[in-house]
Amino acid sequence: MAFMIVATSLNAQDNKHEFRANLGIGIDQHLRNVQERYINDYHLDPVVLCMQLPYINQVSASLEYFNHINKHWAIGGIFGISAASCDNARFKDEDIDFYSYFINYFFDPTSDFSFKSSSQYLMPAFKYSWIPQKHFCLYSKAAIGIMHYKQDVTCDKMPFLERHENGIRFAYQFSPVGFEFGGERIRGFFELGYGKQGIYNAGILFYLNKQKR
User: Which of 14, 31, 94, 187 is the least crowded, having the fewest Cβ atoms under 10 Å away?
Assistant: First the structure.
């Protein structure tokens, strides 16, 4: 009986709860595919907006919780929101000269079409710590779940060309490389991956009931 009490006490001390808050930037590939179909089907010109990162069209924010089963494995979940937009597009003007094209399309980026999406996602997740240390950790993370996805393609000149999507879709995140750095209880982290949380993902985390390493 005494042995069971001691074992339970030690196990409780080993349990480690991890809470995370983070921001990420990445790609809404579904929205980009829809935009490309519109450009090809209706012979549109994309409108390039200044200061826009190539291929990056989505921003996400999420909260995470992990329960550490042992020194390496942890299971938990992720809840987050995201918003995305693609380069807008306009109908081609076949009679425009190069000088006017340059002025109008780069200094006056008005458009006929707008491509936007938003989502709220919930994903069970697991995390594997390859090198768990007191002030540093190298890890990998994977998550799969569902999201409520809303997409709107609008057109001022021809509303009948608009497209609207609102429903439940598959959601995932795979981050093969993640780094934690800082103290034993509070750390910053940075991840490289692909999915709803983005390609580049960074934030802050803190531990409760931290186990000794």
Answer: 94
